[in-house]
Amino acid sequence: MAIVELKGISKSFGQVRAVDGVDVEIKDGEFLVLLGPSGSGKTTLMRLCAGLERPTGGSIVIDGSVVNDVPPRERGIAMVFQSYALYPHKTVFRNIAFPLTVEGMDKAEIRKKVEWAAGLLGIGHLLDRMPSQVSGGEKQRVAIARALVRRPKVLLMDEPLSNLDAKVRHSARDELKKFQREIGVTTIYVTHDQAEAMGLGDRIAVMHEGKVRQIGTPDDIYHYPADTFVAGFVGTPPMNFIEKDGLLTGFRPELFHPAELISDQDPVRFRFRIERVENLGAYSLAYGTIGSVKVIANLSPRLRIREGEERDFGVSRQDVRYFDKQTGAGIRR
Amino acid sequence: MLKKILSKAGFCGGLAFFIVFSASPFYIMLITMFKKSHDLFNPTNNPFILNEPFTAEHVKLLFTQTLYTTFLLNTLYVGVAVVLITVALSVPAAFSLARIAGRWGENLGIGIFLTYLIPPTLLFIPLSRIISVLGLQNSLWSLVLVYPTFTVPFCTWLLMSFIKSIPREIEEQALIDGCSRLGALVKVILPLSVPGIITIIVFAFTLVANEYIYALAFIQDSAKKTIGIGLTTELVRGDVFYWGALMGGALIASIPVALLYTFFLDRIISGLAMGTVRR
C-alpha cells in the first residue's frame, strides 16, 4: 500500500502536450478515477505512473521516493490494460504466475499465491485453460488476478471494463469495488465513462486537454463542478447553462422543476417552453428552451406535461451554480 | 440446389487445377528420373508416361559418378551456418526496428530491405575482391560469409512485420510484470515469434539452396560445390545434358524443403497469436 504523488507532471509528444502540469496526491488505499474524454491525457498520465513513458517535466513519487528514472518492474506497481494483454502462449495459471516466476519465487509458494488470487476472482476452475478458451469477462478477471498476485503497492487500471458487454459490466464494477476495499490497494483507474467514475471512485480527477480540471469526491464533482467543462462532462443529460445577470447560471436537469412544486420560498424562475417529452420509464426528459437557449428537464413521469406548452419552471436557489462567462470557471457565492 | 452443386463443382475444379499445377513439375521430374534416355529423346513418345520399362541408371550415375551426396552435405552445412547467423542477427534487428526506434525504425527497415534488391550479379564483383583479401576463395566459408548479405535483410524485414503484429501491450505488460526489455524479448516476444522465426529459417535455407551466382563465382572444386551449382556444372558436360540425373538430383533435393513447407508453416502460423487481445 502506498501514497502516490504527482508533482507538476508534464509529458509532450513533439508539439503536443499530452499531460500539462498535473499535481495530484493519491492517498494510501484510495481509489482514484481519472475521468476525461478521449485525448484528455488520462491514459498518458497512467502510463507515466507505470513507467511506460518518461515525464518531460515534474516528478512522480511513490511512497516517498522519486521514481522518474525507475523502470516499471521496480516500481511495485501492477497494471491491467484495456485489452487485458494476456500472454497468449501461456495457460491462465502461468499467466497469473508470471510476475512471481520472474521474481524467482519457489514453485509451492507460487501455487499458493496463484490459488489465492484466482480464488479471490472466482476463476479457480480456469487455471488450465489457454487465454483463447475463456470469455471476455473471464479474461478481465485473469488480468486482474495477475495484477494482484504480487500484492502491488499501486494498482493501475486502464478502462478494464470497456471491453465487456453492458450486462457483465455492471456486476464487474460492483465486484471490482468490493475486492479493492477488501485488499485496500491504492488504485488509479482510467475511464471515460462518468457513471463508472461516479460509482467506483473515492475521488475523481476530471481531465481535459492534459490538465486536471477538478479533483474531488463524486459528490463534489457532481454538485460543485469547478468549471463549465466539468459541469458539462459529468451527468447525463449534462448541466443546463443560462446567461443571467452577466453570469452563466448552471443547474442540473433533475433539479429543474415546475415552479409550484419547489419548496424553496424564492426559487430562481424561468419561463420554460417544452418542445418534446421523452418518457424513459423511470423518469422522463423534457426538451425545450428558455428564451432561445436549449434546456433539458428531468422530471417524474407522473407529472403532466404537454409538448408545446410554456410553463413557469424554477430551481431552488441552493441548487444553482454560477460560472464566469469568459473563463467558464465556477464562482462560489 | 443447382447453385450449391455449381459452387461445389467450381471449388473442386479450382482445387484440382492448383493441385495439377503445383504437382506437375514434381511428376515430370519423377518420371524423367526413371526414363530411359532413348524413351526421353524420342519426340513421338508421350512425354507424360513411361513408354519403356523404367531404369535406375540415372540415379546410379547421380550417386556414383558425381559427388551428389557431397553437394547435399555442403548445402546443408552452408545452409545451417547461414540460418544460424541469420537468426542471430535478424531477431534482435527486427525487434528493435519494430519496437524501439519508432518512425526511424520504419525508414531504416525500408532501407535494409532495399539492400536486398541490389542484384547479386552486380554485387559478386566487389564481394569477390573481399573474399580474395580474406583468403576464402574456393572455400565453403566464403558462402557462409556472403549469403547473410541477402538473407539477413530479407529475414529482418519479414520478422519485423511479424513482430509488429504482436500487440505492444503484451510487451509492456511483461515490463510491468517484472521483466527488463531484454527479459520481455526473451520470455514473451520470442516465444510468440516462433512461427515467424520458423518462417525465416525456412526462407533463409531455401534462399541458400537456390543460390547460384555467388557459389559459381567463389567455388571451383567439385568437392566443395553446393547443390545449385553442383548439379548444373557436373551434369551438363559440354552440350550433353544428363536430364535423368539432373531431374533426379533436383527432385531429391527439393523433397525436404517441400516437406518443411507443408508441415511447419500452415500449422504454426495459424492460431497461436490469436485470442488474447480483444479489440
Brief sketch in words of this structure:
Chain A has 8 helices and 19 strands. With 333 residues, chain A is α+β, with helices and mostly antiparallel strands.
Would you mind describing this structure in some detail?
The complex is a heterodimer of chains A (333) and B (279). By secondary structure, chain A is of the alpha+beta class. Helix content of chain A is 26%, strand content 33%. Chain A has helices spanning 42-50, 92-103, 107-120, 136-148, 166-183, 194-200, 218-223, 228-233; strands at 4-13, 16-26, 31-35, 57-62, 65-66, 77-80, 154-158, 186-191, 203-208, 211-216, 240-244, 247-251, 257-258, 268-279, 284-290, 293-299, 310-315, 321-323, 330-331. In chain A, the strands form four sheets. Chain A has a six-stranded mixed beta sheet, with helices on both faces. In chain A, strands 13-17-14-15-16 form a five-stranded antiparallel beta sheet, with no helix packed on it. Chain B has a two-stranded antiparallel sheet with strand order 1-2. In chain B, 76% of the residues lie in helices and 1% in strands. In chain B, α3 crosses α13 (243-269). Chain B has 279 residues and is an all-alpha fold. Chain B has helices spanning 2-33, 37-41, 57-64, 68-100, 102-116, 120-133, 140-146, 148-164, 168-176, 181-210, 213-218, 227-234, 243-269, and strands at 236-237, 240-241. The interface between A and B is medium-sized, with 30 and 25 residues.
Low-confidence regions of chain A: none
- CATH homologous superfamily placement of the largest domain in chain A: P-loop containing nucleotide triphosphate hydrolases
Tell me the number of structural domains of chain A. Answer: 2
Distance linking N and C termini of chain A = 39 Å
Average pLDDT taken over every residue of chain A: 91
Q: Supply the CATH architecture of the largest domain in chain A.
A: 3-Layer(aba) Sandwich
Any idea of the CATH class of the largest domain in chain A? Answer: Alpha Beta
Annotation field: number of helices of chain B: 13
Give the oligomeric state: heterodimer
CATH topology of the largest domain in chain A: Rossmann fold
Largest interface: A-B, 30 and 25 residues
H/E element order of chain B: HHHHHHHHHHHHEEH
Sheet bearing the most strands of chain B, described? 2 strands, antiparallel
Specify the CATH homologous superfamily of the domain at 69-224 in chain B.
MetI-like
